[in-house]
């Protein structure tokens, strides 16, 4: 009855005797508790969040529904292991295109051990986290019946530049998405998936309004998951991965919020810049920047 | 004709044979160019900004007017030295209360040398920068004709906690401001200085709207300066210190923006929480947080 999820794009994956999440046919997602404090921290977060009366109803829908914990046979055959029982976010979508975006310039909670901070900071600097306030940590994009999904391996995500991130966000809403970097994305689904009153941009803006005010949680190393399917029903934004959530102590999560504003700007740009103008504009912007700032000597 | 500024609250200060800025009676502020790349970077920024046609008019007023550079006798007697000639921001105010807030969780530009990053990161973690997205790096608050200004020394700012920052932002708009931590701030000027359609909060929100969109500059280690005087004319917000501004390269300055949103939340809280409820509410919030999150085990 339990099986390896077909559409997981980031994180530890089950299969080949490895430990990872499992799904069933009823729309549930079973995530093995991470070892040490991380597993218990994530359970604590879900329990806190699901019982917290200060969370507005319109914000709850951005989080997977929590159904408690359950002890199951682990996917790596290592025996019984406690799992979080969560809503399977992608199960309602046909041929889902999924993008996992790890939020925040800094992915380490301030009170972490020094070696953990050093490890995270290195990765935040090597990827786009410091530069963009987020990094793409995985995706699959449905191309066509023939090509099926474009789902790069982990190595791909280690070397993405800011310009690559922009291109990937164009391709995510294109019907001709493929690893071919010379093929211009057609953005066939941009207005339906990113745009409109219920699209991804509107959802991110709703989340942003909450983050400008909420001081309950700080979501380090948490991801925004974007999902849409070929069935044509609505695109969804969900937050996932709460092993590094800490108490907000009366202060907003400026680290998550800054990254969210940056992501919103990328997606707004795509909606206002048609794909055929994309390459040209990128060049123009570069030359404008050069003219207005660099030519004055700062990069000389 | 040139003299040491009476109301400088942060940065290198002239006097006692030290190098620092000078002012004259005509409302100009002469800032000696910092050594090495910093000095030229700041000149480059001012030249770029003042000639950049993409800066909206309503945003220009948040920056000191730039009057070029001039070679002057340095305040430390070391001889002739190039100075930036800028608008003297505080000169229009009687008994000015001034607050210098260094913005951003990370004060280091991503391309900085390793030793510089390590030095900045250490300070960002030791102060409130990482936690709040900003740190208070200096202030003077006018108390009364008798007490004159409360202007703590540099040591004071090295050990401020998040709760201290909140208290200082209350005291900044109080007519009974003093170093006595047991004296509750009366917030006599909160609605005039922070509130209203032209107050500090409204100005910060205007800046925020620009930062959500602008991708020209990234303002590392830049300060928001808040100034108001006893003459009762308007409070002002200015950005100062541009030695670490770098090219935005088409991406928003999420690091500055996150800190700005955090500062906005602090000031909004002060406007919605009268000072007599302040202490009580702080305790209540703590206990609510404990109930909703910590009691579930995350801090056990």
UniProtKB/TrEMBL annotation, chains A, B:
Domain of life per record: Eukaryota
Record protein name field: Inositol polyphosphate multikinase beta
Organism: Camellia lanceoleosa
